Amino acid sequence: MNPTDDMIPSPKLIFLDAVGTLFGLRDSVGEIYGNIARQWGVDVPAKPLNRAFFHAFSTAPPMAFPDADPDDIPRLEFEWWLDVAARSFKAVEAFDQFADFSEFFVDLYEEFATAKPWFVYPDVIPALKKWRDRDIELAVLSNFDSRLYPLLEALELAPHFSRVTISTAVGAAKPDPKIFAIALKKHGISPSEVLHIGDSLKADCEGAKAAGIPAIWIDRDGENTPQTHPSVLRRCTTFAEIELS
Predict the structure, then answer these.
(1) For strand 13-16 and strand 194-198, is the pairing parallel, antiparallel, or unpaired?
(2) Which end of the chain is least crowded, N or C, by CB within 10 Å?
(3) For the chain, how are helix, strand and coil distributed in percent, rounded to 5?
(4) What percent of the chain has a predicted confidence (pLDDT) above 70?
């Protein structure tokens, strides 16, 4: 942040995205997928698999299941990710090399529910503690699935947050303003009293703006463009750059 910029007024509540904002992957998705595939006797180069994954992920429908029975959500989440993984391996012509892709995918799916492939960004915990010490309530607002609950515990992040709202539980995914509205209702708070922080211009910043919530864009690689955007209150590369009045 430019030191001459005005500080951001302190909100009563901060919503935070999860993946890419609070924590990230130690290796690329292609490397992780490939490592587990090799345990099943399938050798796939990481880079093309990584490209295939991001194409499959970006073209998948929103991970939200409106009107679904809550008991069906874990199965629907699993099937959503199974389809993404299957399309990824088909794109690199490796799908048919598995004796049973569904069985392989169980191992793959469970891996991402553990702390093993993830790490918490080093700037996160100090900022969360500072904000909590100032009596700012913190909550997670994510397009992740139900694995986020045990994952936040495993990464020792859960104690910092009063609530967690995920797209699969509420039937709407960012940038749909509905997920923000549902989270606001949970907390009984107005948009003007909230700040949203996330790494996606579209999902986080544009979604928050559509819900009337100011947003900070965390651009962790520092290379994304544009430097400014109509939906962004401030662009920062780390939480340490976020100064609240």
Answers:
(1) parallel
(2) C
(3) 45, 15, 40
(4) 94
At 217 the pLDDT is: 93
Taking residues 54-67, report their average pLDDT: 96
Q: Which of these, 187, 183, 232, 180, lies nearest to 206 by C-alpha position?
A: 232
- The whole-angstrom separation of Cα 218 and Cα 206 is 13
Q: Is 29 left (phi over 0), alpha (psi -120 to 50) or beta?
A: alpha
Beta strands 194-198; 23-25: pairing state: unpaired
Give the CATH number of the domain where residue 41 resides.
Answer: 1.10.150.720
Q: What angle do CA 98, 104, 109 make, to 5 degrees?
A: 145
Assess whether 49 and 161 both reside in one domain.
no
Structure tokens that stand for 35 in this block: 């490592």
Tokens read off for 128: 């969360």
Asked if the model's pLDDT at residue 170 lies above 90, the reply is yes
Where in 17-151 does DSSP place strands (E)?
Answer: 23-25, 118-120, 137-142
For the segment 178-234, what is each residue's pLDDT rounded down to a tens digit?
Answer: 999 999 999 999 999 999 999 999 999 999 999 999 999 999 987 655 556 777 788
CB atoms within 10 A of CB 60: 13
What's the token pair of residue 72?
């069906």
Structural domain range at position 68: 29-111
pLDDT score at 224: 58
Q: 155 and 100 in one domain?
A: no
- The total of structural domains in the chain comes to 2
Residues ≥6 apart with Cβ < 8 Å to 103 = none
Question: Is 52 contained in some domain?
Answer: yes
148 and 78 in a common domain = no
Contact 217, 21 (CB under 8 A): no
